[in-house]
Design brief:
CATH topology of the largest domain: Rossmann fold
Shape: globular
CATH superfamily of the largest domain: Glycogen Phosphorylase B
Radius of gyration: 20 Å
Strand order of the largest sheet: 8-7-6-9-10-11
Oligomer: single chain
Order of helices and strands: EHHEEHEHEHHEHEHEHEHEEHH
Strand content: 15-25%
Largest sheet: 6 strands, parallel
Number of strands: 11
Length: about 325
Amino acid sequence: MRLNSAKKILVIRLSSLGDIILSTPLIRTIKKRYPHIKVDYLLREEYQDSLLLNPYIDNLLTFTNKKSDDIKKRISKEKYDVVLDLQNNLRSAGLTEYSAAKKIVYKKRNFSKFLLVNFKINLLKNAASVPERYAAEIDDFELDGEGLELFTNRTPSVAFDPGKQYIGLAPGSRHFTKKWLPEYYIELGRLLSKDDYGVLLFGGKDDKEICRIISEEIPGSINLSNNNDLLQTSADMKNCLAVICNDSGLLHTAAASGIPVVGIFGSTVKEFGFFPYGVEYRLMEHLSLPCRPCTHIGRSSCPKKHFKCMKEITPVSVFENLIALIAPK
């Protein structure tokens, strides 16, 4: 389906942080290619900062479970020409059931993910990134070739030393099997500190304790974790040469802030499409481990009990990849 005849569209991606940020190239390209189209966006309330200042969105609609009926009525009342459902689940389908708009629904390729996770049958080789997969659902449409975006109006939270080169560490993730070991982050931070890099710790409310523990073990490091203040995190990340992080929302936050990324992937793999987009990056993966991937989302524990996917990615190897990434070209 094409968008050229549409006047008003609704984009739906309720969650999570990374998935929403990965939709920003799509929003920007739609608005640049079809400036006459009014673009509204629906997302969960807790993620609204990711798009709050985005100039390519006309109206930002926020969703909570308590006001789902109100949102459903509003979608019907607004008379959209097209609903672009990037969430593609029962919730998003239910919210648009009264709308007469034409539907474009993102294909998540769940069966291919199931085959890869459970039988190691890989139909996702050389698969495109998630932003490109979003765009592929629209006929005669290509992204503009630019990166992710996260607009912030904040200033840095601390006075950074202009003579210092800073590296960010973002050790958190919602799932255990996506977290590189805290002691490895500490060892990496010490290597960076020894090489005279400044080390900054990033994380949200759930990451504050692990950021505190790691920061206390790295000489001179600064703990910038906060209570999910995404706009402040982005403003602070812009002072980094690079950010090292797990497969998490902050990986895409760093990329959307224009910062090179070293991504550490344990139980998940690049083929799922959630690798850094639009910036220089290095991915650290245990490519020879036959049990990977064991999930396409994340697990609370290693099903094999050895957690080799993370334990065998050493701090020295991450450090070496980082230095190669930030070396003058």
